């Protein structure tokens, strides 16, 4: 198995579960991983994604990859950061780097392999998650928000938009992948996983001090009673365990469903947002992402 985002939060719990289960786990990471074999990967650099894919191929030789778990993600307090490649950081890490990785590793996947991309319920305005909702999934504008005529002048709101739009991109990428000829012919399962809201992870680390404190406190047993009233709230163990179950193929998606959401610590299979169901948006994002990462469209 190959994984990103296995060093912190519920991804670390998933990684430990996968390793305990006997999976050979290669984790793309900026630091040591709690389980498996860490291979250097910094998602803020497309060159690092390419060398990570090379290292995976070198380590595995002819052994195919049975699961690709793309869980890394981040949210920033504004959209001023740029990656080594000149793209807005949250969009580049959450979407572009993972798009490139999945395209590079697709040929190494086994028949009936599983691809899981971690998305978020915040991609859907209907969920009223409290973050700015995606206005579009235009890769060019997300990569260069200064060119976006609708860019929110409030830094935090622009940062939220970068995050939720990148999570919409995960849904649209899964939509495109599930219709990809290689995926269909090799009967690969592709899933976009929304873990609900999971406090006590590292996700808030770039946000303001009050938000960071609230995130930590609500991640302790003090936050547990909130789960009785809010179906979107899940514990780290449930979110990580479910990610492991999905990656191990222990969950069979209902026919035609590719989006799953953890609600009251159980998997549900709702429709994604209206934007997330658009074939036109999915195709445009696929093609634009190919161009931005220097790949051919197919
Ligand atoms: N927590 C929630 O409420 C929630 C809700 C919906 C979706 N999600 C999504 O769930 C996933 C996991 O989030 P989490 O809450 O568990 O947060 P987390 O504890 O911050 O985990 C994020 C993971 O992504 C990795 N990562 C971030 N930037 C990276 C980079 N440039 N290169 C390589 N790895 C990088 C981190 O590595 P380091 O350890 O090196 O930082 C870490 O392993 C994310 O995709 C997040 O968007 C979370």
Reconstruct the topology from this structure.
Elements: E1 2-4, H1 9-20, E2 26-29, E3 37-40, H2 46-60, E4 65-70, H3 89-105, E5 109-118, H4 139-143, H5 155-178, H6 181-185, E6 189-194, H7 209-218, H8 226-229, H9 236-247, E7 259-263, E8 266-268, H10 279-293
Helix pairs in contact: 1-9, 2-3, 3-5, 3-10, 5-10
The structure holds NADP nicotinamide-adenine-dinucleotide phosphate (NAP).
NADP nicotinamide-adenine-dinucleotide phosphate binds at residues 4-5, 7-11, 30-31, 41-44, 71-74, 93, 118, 120, 195, 197-198, 201-203.
Unreliable spans are none
- Small-molecule components bound: NADP nicotinamide-adenine-dinucleotide phosphate
Reading the helices and strands in chain order gives EHEEHEHEHHHEHHHEEH
Strand arrangement, major sheet:
3-2-1-4-5-6-7-8
Question: What's the tally of helices?
Answer: 10
- For the termini, the CA-CA separation is 24 Å
Give the C-level CATH assignment: Alpha Beta
Using only C-alpha atoms, the radius of gyration works out to 18 Å
What's the rounded overall pLDDT mean?
Answer: 97
CATH-level-2 architecture = 3-Layer(aba) Sandwich
User: Number of domains in the coordinates?
Assistant: 1
CATH topology: Rossmann fold
Please give the largest β-sheet: 8 strands, mixed
């Amino acid at each position: 198995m190959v994984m990103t985002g296995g060093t912190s939060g519920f991804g670390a719990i998933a990684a430990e579960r996968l390793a305990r289960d006997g999976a050979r786990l290669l984790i793309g990471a900026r630091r040591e991983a709690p389980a498996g074999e860490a291979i250097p990967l910094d998602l803020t650099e497309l060159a690092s994604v390419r060398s990570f894919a090379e290292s995976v191929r070198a380590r595995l030789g002819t052994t195919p990859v049975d699961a690709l778990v793309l869980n890394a993600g981040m949210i920033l307090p504004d959209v001023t950061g740029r990656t080594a490649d000149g793209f807005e950081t949250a969009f580049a890490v959450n979407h572009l780097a993972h798009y490139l990785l999945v395209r590079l590793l697709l040929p190494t996947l086994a028949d009936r392999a599983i691809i899981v991309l971690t998305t978020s319920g915040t991609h859907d305005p209907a969920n009223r998650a409290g973050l700015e909702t995606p206005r579009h999934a235009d890769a060019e504008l997300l990569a260069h928000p200064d060119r976006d005529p609708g860019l929110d002048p409030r830094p935090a709101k622009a940062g939220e938009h970068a995050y939720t739009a990148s999570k919409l991109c995960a849904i649209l990428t899964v939509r495109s992948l599930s219709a990809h000829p290689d995926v269909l012919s090799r009967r690969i399962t592709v899933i976009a996983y929304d873990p609900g809201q999971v406090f006590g992870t590292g996700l808030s680390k770039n946000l303001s001090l009050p938000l960071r404190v609230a995130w930590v406190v609500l991640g302790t047993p003090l936050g547990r009673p909130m789960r009785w009233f809010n179906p979107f709230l899940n514990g780290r163990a449930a979110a990580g365990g479910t990610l492991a179950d999905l990656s191990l193929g222990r969950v069979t998606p209902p026919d035609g469903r590719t989006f799953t959401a953890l609600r009251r610590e159980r998997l549900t299979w709702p429709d994604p947002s209206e934007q997330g169901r658009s074939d036109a948006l999915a195709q445009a994002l696929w093609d634009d992402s190919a161009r931005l990462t220097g790949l051919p469209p197919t």
